[in-house]
Amino acid sequence: MGSKAIIGVTDWKRTKADLRRLAKALDAGKRPGAADFELNFAQAGDVVAEITRERLRLLAGLRAAGPSTVYALARTLGRNYSNVHADVKRLRALGLIEFDADRRVFVPWKEIRIRLPLAEAA
If you average pLDDT over residues 44-52, what whole number do you get? Predict the structure, then answer.
């Protein structure tokens, strides 16, 4: 697993081409190295809808605090528990948050980059 998550915009044609290249390399016996986690959306608006200001604040706070319960995280952030719980659930579904063996949430990435190409944001 890489050390960063990259969030961006891509289309199915580009994704399909990337998957074909990977499949050919694997078929040729090549082993891919550690890769960064990529989370792509079809449109820039989708990125903004999913990665909100509060979710970014949650990710930063959780990364700084280390593994935490959702209740403790809500207290630390000064937010309502049910809202933090919903954000944690969604961020986990997106692959940006994980649970440890003690069922505490944590951010496995040292860095999260968001790329929004201007041509695709318009």
Answer: 93
